[in-house]
Specification:
single chain; about 260 residues; alpha/beta; 8-stranded parallel β-barrel; globular; disordered N terminus; binds 2-phosphoglycolic acid
């Protein structure tokens, strides 16, 4: 398939609760060596908080950006065990994941908290990667669109088009995360279209077309080319396949291969 011109590409690795500081630095060194100084799309890695510093050191001189997996909405205060946006920015982060399903469903985060975290990230100079997606039972009941509209509305209501554009959305169907059951490009495309149409309604007409929307859920080197061939899919949020440098590199290479040279 020939490359097509479109929105800038982004591939982010969500390391979840994997890699110590030493292990993370090793992986970051390997990735930096594979990707070279100028990868053809934006590449972000999101290590655990305690590995941020050593990964930052290992990424020095590379174009790979650092992200975190979560933040507290307040900038400081008596919140035992939490980490704030200013702390992440000072640790070298440029991105932060908010509303991941493992936090929505595993840690009870609701749409209102996700909205506060999105705004906190922007306040603190971080680009939020805002995760949305339906569970299997919601999909089976035909509720996918309802869930996506509710989650996008909850997160983006009140944002200006310029503010929204400085965020990234990740469509992550819960049934595809860590299961090996990747969404088909058609399923991902349909969801991305619903998300863009909702952004048009909630933010401003035309806002959806300008947004970078990633797909996430069991993305690997085999599934990535088919997903990235669809112009609705601007990149990926990668979990398991981001824990090994060669596997993650192949996903990034697939994203870059789908970009038209300018
Ligand atoms: P996975 O995780 O690629 O291991 O399915 C993706 C995610 O949760 O962001």
């Amino acid at each position: 398939m020939s490359p097509v011109a479109r929105r800038p590409r982004l591939v982010a690795g969500n390391w979840k609760m994997h890699k110590t500081g030493v292990e993370g630095a090793t992986l970051a060194h390997e990735l930096a060596a594979l990707l070279g100084a100028r990868p053809q799309c934006t590449v972000v890695v999101c290590p655990p908080f305690v590995a941020l510093d050593s990964v930052r050191g290992a990424l020095r001189g590379s174009a790979i950006a650092l992200g975190a997996q979560n933040l507290h909405p307040e900038p400081r205060g008596a919140f035992t065990g939490e980490i704030s946006g200013p702390m992440l920015a000072a640790a070298g982060c440029r991105y932060v994941i908010v509303g991941h399903s493992e936090r929505r469903h595993g840690m009870g985060e609701d749409d209102a908290l996700v909205a506060r975290k999105l705004r906190a990230a922007r306040r603190d100079g971080l680009t939020p990667i805002v995760c949305v997606g339906e569970t299997l039972s919601e999909r089976d009941q035909g509720l996918t669109a309802d869930v996506l509209v509710r989650q996008i509305r909850g997160a983006y209501e009140g944002l200006s088009p310029a503010e929204a554009q400085e965020t990234v959305v990740a469509y992550e169907p819960v049934w595809a995360i860590g299961t090996g059951r990747v969404a088909t490009p058609e399923q991902a495309r349909d969801a991305h279209r619903i998300i863009r149409a909702t952004l048009d309604r909630v933010v401003a007409p035309g806002a959806g077309a300008k947004m970078c929307i990633l797909y996430g859920g069991s993305v690997n080197a085999d599934s990535a080319p088919g997903l990235f061939a669809d112009p609705e899919i601007d990149g990926a949020l990668v979990g398991g396949a981001s824990l090994e440098a060669a596997a993650f590199f192949r996903v990034v290479a697939a994203a870059a291969a789908a970009i038209a040279p300018v």
